[in-house]
Amino acid sequence: MVCLGNICRSPLAEGILQHKANQLGLTWQIDSAGTLGWHAGELPDSRSIAIAKKYGIDITYQRSRQFSTYDIERFDIIYAMDASNYRDLIQHAHTSEEKEKVKMILNEVAPKGNRSVPDPYYDSDGFEDVFQMLDKACDEIIRKYNRQ
């Protein structure tokens, strides 16, 4: 799960998907990062923490980190929160196989729509909408990749 600073959208996406995977007993490795390292080592934004808590999800164990080329090798799928993040992530990919790992997260709900998850950082009211978008996308990810 990747956004710009790894404090708003991607921590929510990580927390939501991890919560759903845990409920199903899945042992998926889920992580998040930012394309930039502005907030490295910091907790998620307090508004992300609050909206996750509202839905019974704790994301206070997360710490912001910057995405690295190693992440392309390490993970099977890399979800970008918006088109700008997608372009930045593709630059880390060196092969067609690596490029295929990078996906827009909302394409799980609306295939090929290439819609972006809006950045709620400057819009406190946007955190609820972002949570709902990511919750639906994570439901689809679970449905699509749960091979139990």
Overview of the molecule:
With 148 residues, this protein is mainly alpha-helical. It has a single domain, classed as 3-Layer(aba) Sandwich (Rossmann fold). It is 43% helix and 7% strand. α1 (9-23) packs across α6 (126-145). The longest helix is centred in the last third of the chain and has 20 residues, at 126-145. The mean pLDDT is 96.
Number of strands: 4
Which band does the percent of strand residues land in? 5-15%
Q: What name does CATH use for the topology?
A: Rossmann fold
Low-confidence spans: none
- Count of spatially separate domains: 1
**Mean pLDDT reading:** 96
Strand order of the largest sheet: 1-2
Helicity, as a percent range:
40-55%
Q: Which architecture would the CATH scheme give at its second level?
A: 3-Layer(aba) Sandwich
- Globally, the shape reads globular
- Rg on CA atoms, Å: 14 Å
Main sheet overview: 2 strands, parallel
Which superfamily, in CATH terms, is the homologous superfamily?
A: Response regulator
Distance between the termini: 23 Å
Oligomeric form: single chain
How many H/I helical runs?
Answer: 6
At the first level of CATH, the class is Alpha Beta
Notable characteristics:
single chain, 148 residues, mainly alpha, Rossmann fold, two-stranded parallel sheet, two-stranded parallel ribbon
